[in-house]
């Protein structure tokens, strides 16, 4: 993890994300790109309207001033930090910056049960997690000296999740973390017998060419199962796949991915399929 992007809105949650990125950067000698999105209207960024253009320039300069104050923190000393101010839509800008700088990770803060707010209001948060071409780490509470020793990865072990799992495995190896795999079995249409569950899991592990144990955890919902399992194993990080433009995977139907990130006290990282 040589390059990390941290989208910020200068809130407390932004600083929690920045501190987390700093902990990772110090351990792996990473660079941090701190990104603030103004999302100015087309009217304000139009050079055809001089007044509007001057207002846009003023807002950019104001953001740069806030950046200087926001980044003047002791925990950023000895870390190569680059501030970036953009005004386009969050998703296209972030993905473009990921590609331009060959970034490995996005770290973003969350307000917990209220969802990820400010520059990632409502569906913007879901789109960021869904469309980012690199893992997205969502963190709610400050964790001094953030370090991952136990990494839970939860999925339904369908073949479509193979790439996400492989990327998670690479991350776990980089972090030198114990990787713990879990399948959450729930009542209803998605219920699998133990035999059927292990048939699917064994086929998946064979395709992945890994020899790891998978725990089957029973609960009333996938969301609660992931959180309860993670807490029971004292996990430092919970990983899960997402399904690109089609939204969350079959395993993470509806808002389960966002719900886990919002309700879990444990940081959550997502991997795009």
Record keyword descriptors for this entry.
9 helices; Rossmann fold; alpha/beta; 273 residues; 2 domains; single chain; 10 strands
For the secondary structure, the number of strands is 10
Instruction: Return the CATH class of the largest domain.
Output: Alpha Beta
Low-confidence stretches: 115-124, 246-254
**What is the CATH topology of the largest domain?**
Rossmann fold
Helical amount? 40-55%
Q: Concise description?
A:
41% of the residues lie in helices and 21% in strands. With 273 residues, it is α/β, with parallel strands linked by helices.
Characterization of this structure:
This protein has 273 residues and is of the alpha/beta class. The protein has nine helices and ten strands. The chain has helices at residues 12-28, 42-45, 50-70, 90-101, 123-131, 162-175, 194-208, 222-232, 256-263, and strands at residues 3-7, 31-37, 81-86, 105-109, 136-139, 150-154, 178-185, 214-218, 237-242, 268-272. It has a ten-stranded mixed β-sheet, with helices on both faces. Helix 1 (12-28) links the parallel strand 1 and strand 2 (31-37).
């Amino acid at each position: 993890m040589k390059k990390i992007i941290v989208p910020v809105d200068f809130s407390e949650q932004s600083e929690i994300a920045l501190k987390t990125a700093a902990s990772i950067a110090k351990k792996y000698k990473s660079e941090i790109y701190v990104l603030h999105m103004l999302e100015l209207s087309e009217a304000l960024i139009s050079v055809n309207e001089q007044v509007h253009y001057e207002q846009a320039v003023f807002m950019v300069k104001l953001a740069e001033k806030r950046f200087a104050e926001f980044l003047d923190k002791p925990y950023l000393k000895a870390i190569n930090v680059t501030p970036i101010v953009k005004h386009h839509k969050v998703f296209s800008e972030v993905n473009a910056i990921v590609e331009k700088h060959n970034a490995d990770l996005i770290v973003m803060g969350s307000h917990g049960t209220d969802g990820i707010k400010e520059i990632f209001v409502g569906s913007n948060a879901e789109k960021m997690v869904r469309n980012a071409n690199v893992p997205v780490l969502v963190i709610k509470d400050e964790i001094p000296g953030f370090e991952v020793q136990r990494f839970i990865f939860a999925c339904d072990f369908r073949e479509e999740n193979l790439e996400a799992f492989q990327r998670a495995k690479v991350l776990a190896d980089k972090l030198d973390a114990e990787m713990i795999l879990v399948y959450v079995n729930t009542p209803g249409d998605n219920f699998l017998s133990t035999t059927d569950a292990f048939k699917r899991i064994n086929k998946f592990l064979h395709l992945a060419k890994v020899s790891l144990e998978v725990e089957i955890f029973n609960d009333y919902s996938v969301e609660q199962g992931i959180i309860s399992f993670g807490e029971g194993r004292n996990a430092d990080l919970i990983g899960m796949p997402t399904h690109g433009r089609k939204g969350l995977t079959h395993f993470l139907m509806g808002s389960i991915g966002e719900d886990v990130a919002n309700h879990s006290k444990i940081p959550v990282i997502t991997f795009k399929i």
